[in-house]
Design brief:
Layout lengths: L1 H13 L1 H8 L9 H4 L3 H14 L3 H10 L3 E3 L8 H4 L8 H24 L8 H26 L30 H18 L11 H15 L2 H12 L7 H7 L8 E5 L35 E3 L1 H7 L5 H6 L17 H4 L18 E5 H14 L3 H15 L10 H15 L6 H8 L11 H4 L20 H6 L10
Antiparallel strand pairs: 1-3, 2-4
Helix pairs in contact: 1-7, 4-7, 4-8, 5-7, 7-8, 8-9, 9-10, 10-11, 10-16, 11-16, 16-17, 16-18, 17-18, 18-19
Length: 488
């Protein structure tokens, strides 16, 4: 099912001409929605198809390459050269992957929602409501992800987000303009309200339940700068979840502990993402290595020295969880070694895999994020001491040293940004965090000087246009009503 809808979506986006013959005729045996969905069980299959479009590896890969998380590895053959050199354009593969993946999920969710009106709910009322509620949740999440990556300013309701799609159209040539953030936020909130009214359980961490809805509300309001609402939702999560300790944190990224996991995307051997490796496609570890997370595993993207230098010599569990300490090669003289790319090998270890190397679940919402949203809310309200206390509580759980309490807004948000940099390393947050909080915390991209001396530049201002992704050229070509982002 995923491949069918990916073909339909690619047909819309990539080329109008080549698809013309396929849609201008009524093909024998064509399976319409009225035949594809005939029971509640069929709706559930459609829901699983929508889930199958959800994949955060494009966000993870882009953030790692574009920011100060990674530098090209010893076995790099040109991977991520454009992103490392801040060369982003409308043909960027990560931008297309994010755009097409979430619109694939939205398209499937819309089909489930519309088809549900033709299905007898009495066949299985509980399952019916749960399936339809999750379809609304998927649509809300996917629209929010589009806004996150393609809007210039999360706090400006008048800024453009993406295409707001809430129905299934038969006209694949329809010219659809971009909607504003305000319109997106209104629709997302309405979809979450509908999802909340239908879903009766949490269904574990791999399906969207009530806690997922609350966590998404917390993140959305934090990004908007509405911290009163963000704190309320974050606290509601923390009333039921504990932030993991050091041992649990380690086990969490081996998919063996779910203490603080609110929602994750399951990745397992034999699923549709298995076997899809380098540069996105399910194996998050394959964003950094060809074979496995060892020294002989073909590391082509490695931990940046700027991150390593923060964690080196500490008892912070995030060092051993993010870096293969046993097999990494640490060159004490890397700053004066012109061959440090071969002699200083910092192996990413966030997604080592188990039976299948490099294959792990993708953590989307964690209690630690909710904890740090409370810190943001405190800093925003001028309670800098409380913001510092919350950050230090998290550091204590990670085995890190206590920091001095901040005394002003810049110090408080800077402290939070520094902590988020370590806590969510290689999870796809850094680019977004600098965009939304960098100026408030007096922080910017912090690449290692030695590494960036071989790149086009060391940093970007947080206001730079490349902190907003371009609308993919395939979309602009097929849909002339979609306005491109500035400077692309």
């Amino acid at each position: 099912m995923k491949n069918i809808f990916k073909f339909i979506f690619a047909c819309l986006l990539v080329t109008v001409t080549s698809c013309n013959d396929a849609i201008d005729i009524t093909q024998p045996g064509r399976l319409g929605a009225e035949n594809a969905f005939r029971s509640v069980t069929d709706l559930q299959s459609g829901l699983l198809g929508a889930y199958n479009f959800l994949d955060t590896t494009y966000e993870i890969g882009f953030t790692s390459a574009m920011t100060d998380e990674c530098y090209r590895g010893r076995d790099n053959g040109g991977q991520n050269t454009n992103e490392q050199n801040f060369n982003i354009n409308s043909s960027n593969g990560y931008a297309f992957g994010i755009w097409s993946g979430y619109y694939g999920a939205i398209g499937m969710a819309n089909r489930v929602i519309e088809a549900a009106a033709t299905i007898d709910r009495n066949e299985d009322p509980t399952l019916y409501d749960d399936v339809v509620g999750q379809a609304y949740a998927i649509r809300a999440f996917s629209h929010f992800q589009i806004l996150t990556w393609f809007s210039t300013d999360y706090t400006d309701d008048n800024a453009l987000a993406g295409l707001l799609l809430t129905g299934v159209t038969e006209d694949i040539f329809a010219q659809v303009p971009r909607s504003t953030n305000g319109e997106f936020y209104t629709q997302i909130s309405a979809d979450l309200d509908m999802a909340s009214s239908l879903i009766t359980t949490n269904s574990g961490v791999k399906f969207m339940g009530q806690d997922f809805i609350t966590a998404l509300r917390a993140r959305m309001h934090a990004y908007k700068g509405d911290y009163a609402a963000a704190a309320t939702h974050a606290q509601a999560i923390l009333d039921n979840y504990s932030v993991s300790d050091a041992a649990q944190f380690t086990a969490m990224f081996e998919d063996a502990d779910f203490t603080e996991v609110i929602f994750s995307l399951e990745r397992s051997i034999g699923d549709s993402y298995d076997g899809q490796g380098t540069a996105g496609g399910g194996w998050a570890g394959s964003l950094y290595a060809f074979i496995d997370a060892t020294e002989q595993g073909g590391p082509f993207m490695e931990m940046s020295r700027s991150v390593y230098n923060i964690l080196a010599g500490t008892s912070d569990v995030r060092l051993s969880r993010s870096l293969n300490v046993a097999e990494s090669i640490i060159d004490p003289g890397y700053e004066s070694n012109d061959n440090f790319i071969n002699d200083d090998v910092l192996l990413v270890y966030k997604y080592p895999g188990g039976v299948q190397p490099l294959l792990n679940d993708l953590k989307v919402f964690r209690a630690a994020e909710m904890h740090l949203i409370l810190a943001e809310a405190a800093a925003d309200a001028g309670d800098y001491a409380q913001a510092g206390t919350l950050v230090n509580q998290l550091r204590g759980l990670r085995g890190a040293s206590t920091l001095d309490a901040p005394t002003n807004e810049a110090d408080a948000f800077g402290m939070i940004l520094d902590e988020r940099r370590l806590e969510f390393l290689f999870e796809g947050h850094r680019w977004v965090d600098l965009k939304r909080l960098g100026d408030r915390g007096n922080r910017a991209m912090d690449r290692d000087a030695r590494e960036c001396s071989f790149l086009a530049d060391c940093t970007l201002p947080n206001s730079d246009y490349r902190f907003t992704l371009p609308i993919p050229v395939a979309e602009i070509t097929a849909n002339s009503a979609a306005q491109q982002n500035p400077n692309y």
